[in-house]
Amino acid sequence: MLQLFHNPKIDFMGKRRLWIVVSLTLIAISLGILFTKGIRRGIEFEGGAEVQLTYTGAPDVAGVRDALARAGYNGAVVTTIGKPEEHEIYVRVPLVPGAKEQDLAPKVVASLREAQGSNPIKEVRSQSYIGPTVGRELVKKALGAVIGSMAGMLVYIWIRFEFQWGLAGVIALVHDTIITLGLFSLFGYEMSLPVVAAFLTLVGYSMNDTVVIFDRIRENLRAKGGTVSSLPDLINTSMNQTLSRTILTSLLTWITCAFLFALGGPALRDFSFVMVVGIVVGTYSSIYIASPFLVVWQEWLGARAKQKAAVAPQKPVAKKVRTGKA
Amino acid sequence: MSSTMTWKLALIAGAVGVSIWLFYPPKDKINLGLDLQGGSHLVAQVDTSVAVKSEIDVAINRIGQMLKEKTIPYTAIESSADGLGINIKGVDTARAKDLREILDTNVPRWTVTPLESDWSIRMPDAIRQQVEAASIDTTLTVMRQRVDELGVKEPIIQKQGTSGDRIVVELPGIKDPEHAKGVLQDQAMLEWKAVVYPPGVSDFEGWIPPATKEAVTQLFGGAVPPNVELAPEVRTESNGTKLEMWWPLEKVAAISGGDLRTARRGADNMQRNVVDFILSPEAGKRFQAATRTNIHKKMAIVLGSASGKVVISAPVINDVISDRGQISGRFDVAGAEDLALKLRSGAIPTAVTFIEERTVGPSLGKDSIRAGVLASLLGFAGVAIFMLIYYRLSGVNAVIALLMNVVLVLGAMAYFGSTLTLPGIAGLILTVGMAVDSNVLIFERIREELRLGKAVRTAIDQGFSRAFGTIVDTHVTTIVSAFFLFTYGTGPVRGFAVTLVIGLLFSMFTAVFVSRVIYDLVLGDRRNVESLSI
Q1: Between chains, do B492 and A125 touch, taking CB under 8 Å as contact?
Q2: Which residues in chain A have their CB less than 8 angstroms from residue B363's CB?
Q3: Does domain A48-130 have CATH number 3.55.50.30?
Q4: What sections of A227-289 are H helices per DSSP?
Q5: Is residue B391 part of a domain?
Q6: Considering the domain boundaries, does residue B456 fall inside one?
Q7: pLDDT digits (tens, 9 = 90+) for A285-298
């Protein structure tokens, strides 16, 4: 039998403080990148026009940029895309403040046709225009959806387990989202509708790993009648039991995303980048963030109980972990 | 083979058979999104204030006409400063009762405040809201009509957003989005208005107005009469120079586009392109009366758009016209076709601006399909190879389940008529990546049970039953996020969410039920199974 891990006995919980510090550092770095570098926003969010077209000969990117500047479109982004022999370029033009905008994309094409000279435009592959109001609404909607789905997770885990389990899961999700966003920004990818979709998918996916481990922890707790001498030990056992599965499934999903990233074409690249990075971060956080949080919570409750005990002596706190319903 | 087994196998074969029948051949049975098949996705913002204004104008027209018919003297009728009411000035106080009657028939529920000879009539909020809602519906209907006339197959035209003042238009396979936008957006408010000649003009048939607004105003002695409005006509001469003329016209239109029964492109006796139209019988009577009063004079044909009113032409009325007529305006074939189309489908009562456009050419769509499908096939192959190496024969079991999952998803998509978009293709392969999770959960559990020294059958039993709760949990979390994805997204992203959810639901069936049946089938009725290839 081929096995990734043969009867693993890794002490995940022993170094939990170290991993929390590692994660906090990663989050701090990610936030730093986000605040200094920011995230490039696609036209869905910024507004503007986007045109993709092919020329008969090799396109003159600088010439195209000049032609656009002459036509009054400043700050245009012009890049070649696709295979070099297809002579394809991508042009993006920001909104012109105060102008009537709805014909922006065709106007850009028209001014490029005017300047085409001996290298005529072969085909307009796509053109898009997004008005300023649409973008603002989308930002709001996207944030709402991400927060909404995290809240949904919290509630579901709360119902199936206990509140602090849900909280642990969501903290891991926030962790994954911030770090993935940081890397997304670092590599200079562009935020678009499908990318937000990828983040939402990631939220769901990353929760999967966490839930599988939680399920096992609960099962083991129940087997012991709900009382354990050491919660970290029990979590360690549970994580070792599920380790093969955690790594395997993440690896398999990661394979599919890696193929999408490498071969899915430019339209899916930003989208699959989020998944490729997010799956790795999500798997890490399921192991090193979500479950350790349960212990942190337990210790915190214990500390509070001790404080109380100092004021009014009462029964020693039993290390009982509630296992929830279901 | 037991009877339950036969029954289970029949169910599985049936599901697969029906699915294949539903989606095969995929080229015809699966709807492709605009990003894959090419086409335009447009979002229009509808401004209803124009509709309210024109409702006021229509009321002014009608009241003005009746004041004339009943020969009630007044000095002016005009819309109020805020555009939500009508002011009639200098009404003969002796005829107040008659005016009240006119108002009761034309604007029955409006608030009327007479102040001596000046009357103020206001549109109540409730009516304004009705007008706004109705104007959006009309816009939608007219747009549908026009899209049909453009010959676009399977278009989608629907309201969007909570306030309902946005319209999404999806035009698959359209080649010229500019033309489509122009046709969809044009209000095409057509009106026939009598020319009001300045004092001193005697050659009614030959008179041509001056080129500027100011010059026309001068002809009227510095101010145009209150019942007169000015509208420009722009002619492009053969040498390319533009000639502008400002026509003084009666504010009250004789007939308008809504009175048309039909319109089509035709040719006049000099083989120039014109638009022939037929009026409704009731409008025919009004037009007859109007042409009779204006015989041997000019009447202007005015086309209103969001950017203002323009005179198309101002022909001399040679005969009394009742129910049919012609619009000549130096059209080319396409221009005449377009105008006829817009008149046939009716006027759009609102101002429409496109705030979003996404047009994908067919070649880009094809490339996207190719890249998406290739990446998906290789992704699937990667997963399959891994499963086969890692779980050996049980891996075969998982791969069968995964293949079946894909078949069922495609079948369901064809059945529900949901659209496959590029992110949808990604969703499909991502589903495979996630669906295999259930198999892994079960297989790992079976291995654990085997390691504990349990018999193969017991291990399989417990593996499936113990993993089940976890499988439900993992599915629900993903579906929760897919739900928010669906509410957030439009078009392509929704396609992604739908594929993901359908795929996950079916994976419960394939990974749990189908895989189990395969084990039972392979292990058969053997009482003591020594080993399991896992």
Answers
A1: no
A2: 123, 125
A3: no
A4: 231-263, 266-285
A5: yes
A6: yes
A7: 999 999 889 888 88
B387 lies within 8 A of chain A by CB: yes
Nearest CA in chain A to B352: A102
| Whether the Cβ atoms of residue B509 and residue B501 lie closer than 8 Å to each other | no
The neighbouring-strand residues paired with B356 are A130, B43
Does domain A16-41+135-311 correspond to CATH entry 1.20.1640.10?
Answer: yes
Q: Give residue B517's domain range.
A: 3-38+361-523
Interchain CB distance below 8 Å, B386 and A141? no
**Tokens standing for residue B468:** 């089940």
Burial B479-516 (b: 16+ CB within 10 A, else e): bbbbbbbbebbbbbbbbbbbbbbbbbbbbbbbbbbbbb
Q: Cα distance from A316 to chain B (closest Cα, Å)?
A: 34
Q: How far is A302 from chain B (nearest CA, A)?
A: 29
Contact A134 B356 (CB under 8 A): yes
Chain A residues in contact with B367 (beta carbon < 8 A): 82, 265
Task: Tell me how many domains chain B contains.
Answer: 3
CA atoms within 13 A on the CB side of B517: 20
- β-bridge mates for residue B40, sequence order: B171, B359
Q: CB atoms < 10 A from the CB of B2, how many?
A: 9
Q: For B102-144, how does the pLDDT look when each residue is reduced to its tens digit (9 = 90+)?
A: 898 888 889 999 888 899 999 999 999 988 988 898 899 889 9
Q: Is residue B393 in a domain?
A: yes
**Which residue of chain A is at minimal alpha-carbon distance from B175?**
A124
Predicted TM-score (pTM) of the model is: 0.80
Per-residue pLDDT tens digits for A231-281: 889 999 999 999 988 999 899 999 999 999 999 888 889 999 999 999 999
Alpha carbons within 13 angstroms on the beta-carbon side of residue B92 total 10
d(CA B340, CA B327) in angstroms, rounded, equals 10
Same domain, B194 and B249: yes
**In this predicted model, what pLDDT tens digit does every residue of B308-320 receive, in sequence order?**
788 888 888 888 8
* CATH number of the domain encompassing residue B430: 1.20.1640.10
Look up residue B275 and give its two tokens: 């638009």
Question: Which residue type, as a one-letter code, is found at position B291?
Answer: T
CB nearest A133 (choices: B355, B363, B447)? B355
Binary contact (B482, A148; C-beta < 8 A): no
Mutation target to probe the A interface, by most A beta carbons within 10 A, among B36, B171, B178, B484 is B484
Tell me the C-alpha distance between B336 and B334, whole Å. 5
Domain boundaries, chain A: 16-41+135-311, 48-130
Domain for residue B11, yes or no? Answer: yes
**Does position B516 have pLDDT exceeding 90, yes or no?**
yes
Strand partners, B359: A127, B40
CB pairs under 8 A between A and B: 231
Q: Which ipTM did the prediction report?
A: 0.87
Q: Tokens in use for A208? A: 């999967």
Are the beta carbons of A196 and B534 separated by less than 8 Å? no
Q: Are strands B324-331 and B255-256 parallel, antiparallel or unpaired?
A: unpaired
Hey, is the C-beta of A145 within 8 angstroms of any chain B C-beta?
A: yes
Intervals of chain A under pLDDT 50: 312-319, 324-326
Contact B493 A194 (CB under 8 A): yes
Question: Are residues B366 and B514 both part of a single domain?
Answer: yes
Classify the C-alpha dihedral B307-B312-B314-B317 as positive or negative.
negative
- Residue A246 Cα, gap to closest chain B Cα (Å): 9
Q: How far apart are CA B312 and CA B273, in angstroms?
A: 13
Contact at 8 Å (CB) between B440 and B53?
A: no
Q: At residue A238, what are phi and psi to the nearest 5 degrees?
A: -60, -40
**If you average pLDDT over every residue of chain B, what do you get?**
87
Q: Sign of the C-alpha dihedral, residues B54, B59, B63, B66? A: positive
Instruction: Establish how many alpha carbons lie within 13 A of residue B347's alpha carbon, considering only the half-sphere containing its beta carbon.
Output: 21
Q: Is the pLDDT of residue B328 over 50?
A: yes
